[in-house]
Specification:
Enzyme I, Chain A, domain 2; 591 residues; 8-stranded mixed β-sheet; TIM Barrel; 46% helix; 23 helices; alpha/beta
């Protein structure tokens, strides 16, 4: 896309809000062109060993560079480095490293082409997954590909840590290694064409707490070096060549945001208690151990969702019991007496990485995924459960089974869990049997059968992302229908009412851990429905807690009754705005 003349006219680009906040400054374009023009050419059998050696040297150079970044990372930002350590391991993984060598050898082709071919195959595994977090792992493969390819073709590596001025980074994409080189005294924020909320780049941006907007598609085509730009990480917008009036407006908004953020964050360790004394648990969602730091810093009451899939990604085999035990123990020990809810493996069977990968599925979202996959692969399931039970001796752990659709799945899962406990006891290995068991309600059938499922578990956790998707038949990733993905749709509210009523009747706790929980405007509805706790992205905790502390529990019950009578999500939203608009404006003073 050609950039229009923006010298005298401000231009607004819309992307994905990944890390909130506002920054204003000059753009610094990160040049990453010139490494993807790869052609295939045959090599003689006598040259194969030399070509493999050249590939190995390029990988070693990349590995050494990652190790250098890890070792030079200041102590304050060490929580980022486990992402790089994971990529460091991937550089030697059979799936990427081994298959590239095999391709060079078996097809007698140049290393660049072999690498490109293997990376395309590996990326497709992740891109076809239904979980947005797992889809983003394709970006990790891209970043390693770029690094190795630059070494193969002799292109310069991007060196962000050598930037010596205060700028806003603009790039087609940024790898975790590059993002980890960001120093807050030099980089105000960043924007990229690619990426999303679940990307490692996004995770690091939130850890650094700098404004970031990703997924802009054409930012590098529209923005020039030294352009003055505004990054609104809260709204997910970029303004190129802003007018004086816009600069003043956003300068004031940025100042208000930082002041208000500091004030709210200072209070984030206070309990989430309504004005009439009703206390809620507010927990954090994590996917990587290093995110525990944010959970603690933002005053979470524990971890409501620990996604365990990443430990199974980017590898050709399944992780060992000891590997999983070490990862889980790290998180549990840091959290101390606060609960850690570990979701068992939630992965598509046809896209599972490892020796057990099954046949391709036409519709994996409705196929062998979550608890279905685990029950078909009891060996994989048992290994994970053994690791969880062992790690549980270090703290307060809850186990949560995902994608449950029938009572029989719960019974089979509990049977395997009991067998695992017996095997640990027989082996004389220390483990904890004091573990609460829950299910993730994300399929309409589970909501309908909630009364029977409740008799077999200690708690419910509602995964609204999938529950909304399956109930409304909306694929969030499909741009043509994603606008219909509405958490406040009365059909969703009625299902949530069903779940909370059953939980109250059966005297079990019910939590909500989908994205719906992370928006302050939803808090009154969720309170009125009877949720016992919310779990969300750690950065959302202070604002949601502040909202809870600003409202009266007694008022939320009639609010829900009125909402359930309405016919559309728009009308529910209007009612919430009318009732709580002044409180929301007070909490979010960036406008």
């Amino acid at each position: 896309m050609n950039r229009p003349d923006t010298d005298n006219h401000e231009t607004i680009l819309n992307g994905i809000s990944v890390s909130p906040g506002i920054c204003i400054g000059k753009a610094y374009l990160v040049d990453k062109e010139g490494v993807d023009v790869v052609r295939q050419y045959p090599i003689l059998k006598s040259q194969v060993k030399k070509e493999i050696k050249r590939f190995k040297a390029a990988v070693k150079k990349s590995k050494d560079a990652l190790r250098d970044i890890i070792e030079k990372t200041p102590e304050d930002f060490r929580q980022q480095t486990s992402i790089l350590e994971t990529q460091e391991v991937l550089l030697k993984d059979k799936m990427l490293y081994g298959k590239t060598i095999d391709t060079i050898e078996n097809e007698s082709v140049n290393a660049e082409w072999a690498l490109k071919k293997v990376v395309a195959e590996v990326k497709s595994i992740f891109q076809n997954m239904t979980d947005p977090y797992l889809q983003e792992r394709a970006a990790d493969i891209d970043h390693l590909y770029d690094h190795i390819m630059r070494n193969l073709v002799g292109a310069n590596q991007v060196n962000i840590d050598q930037i010596d001025k205060r700028v806003i980074l603009v790039a087609h994409d940024l790898s975790p290694a590059e993002t980890s080189q960001i120093r807050l005294e030099r980089i105000k924020g960043f924007v990229t064409d690619k990426g999303g909320k679940a990307s490692h780049t996004g995770i690091i941006a939130r850890a650094l707490e700098i404004p970031a907007v990703l997924g802009l598609d054409n930012a590098t085509a529209m923005i020039r070096n030294e352009d003055v730009i505004i990054v609104d990480g809260t709204a997910g917008t970029i303004i190129i060549a802003p007018s004086e009036q816009t600069l003043v407006k956003y300068g004031e908004r940025s100042m208000r945001y930082e002041q208000h953020k500091a004030a709210i964050t200072r209070k984030s360790r206070m309990p989430a208690e309504t004005t009439d004394g009703h206390r809620l648990m507010v927990l954090g969602n994590i996917a990587l151990p290093e995110e525990v730091v944010s959970v603690i810093n933002y005053g979470a009451d524990g971890i409501g969702l620990y996604r365990t899939e990443f430990q199974y990604m980017n590898r050709s085999d399944f992780p060992s019991e000891d590997e999983l035990y070490d990862k889980y123990s790290d998180v549990i020990e840091v959290m101390g007496a606060k609960p850690v809810t570990i979701r068992t493996l939630d992965i598509n069977g046809d896209k599972a990485v490892g020796p057990g990968k099954g046949p391709a599925e036409v519709n994996p979202a409705l196929g062998l995924r979550g608890i279905r996959y685990c029950l078909q692969r009891p060996d994989v399931f048992q290994t994970q459960l053994r690791a969880i039970l062992r790690a549980a001796v270090h703290g307060k752990v809850r186990i949560m089974f995902p994608m449950v659709s029938t009572v029989s799945e719960v019974l089979m899962s509990k049977k395997i869990l009991n067998e695992v406990a017996e095997s640990l006891d027989k082996d004389g290995i220390a483990f904890s049997s004091d573990i609460k068991i829950g299910v993730l309600i994300e399929v309409p059938s589970a909501a309908i059968m909630a009364d029977k499922i409740a008799e077999e578990v200690d708690f419910f956790s509602v995964g609204t992302n999938d529950l909304i998707q399956y109930t409304l038949a909306i694929d969030r990733g499909n741009q043509q229908v994603s606008h219909l993905f509405r958490p406040l749709d009365p059909a969703i509210l009625r299902l949530l009412r069903r779940i909370t009523e059953v939980a109250a009747e059966k005297k079990i706790k019910v939590f909500i851990c989908g994205e719906m929980a992370g928006y302050a405007i939803h808090a009154p509805i969720l309170l009125g429905l009877g949720m016992d706790g919310f779990s969300m992205n750690p950065q959302s905790i202070p604002v949601v807690k502040e909202m809870i502390r600003s409202i009266k529990m007694e008022d939320t019950t009639p609010l829900v009754e009125e909402a359930l009578k309405l016919a559309s999500a728009e009308k529910v939203f209007e009612m919430l705005r009318e009732t709580y608009g002044s409180i929301l404006s007070e909490i979010d003073r960036t406008e």
